[in-house]
Fold:
Amino acid sequence: MTSPKILRGLRGATTAAANTSEAILEATEDLLASLQQANGFEPGDIESAIFTSSPDLTADYPADVPLLGSAEVAVPTGLPRCIRVLLHFYTTKPQRALKHMYLREAAKLRPDR
Structure:
């Protein structure tokens, strides 16, 4: 018997190399591909996504499709050029089996991951 798919939340973060459209989109694509590869979901399994970016990333939105994007609070000690995502997707995996991804300089945010 196959387990039913249920809605789960998956987090991730990365940093862009620069405040350019190309760097922002490349970092976002890399993060999403890493999350997909590590967790084995298909694009059609995604119900919604919320992206945030640090206030110093102004050249482009992190997502080039119609998903919710927001600016992070300008915390003085915040990580520069940071892009975060919260994906809501359907999976048969239990919550503890999900692999949240923190890439590049964002690895400092979650050294336990």
Remarks:
- The chain has a mean pLDDT of 91.
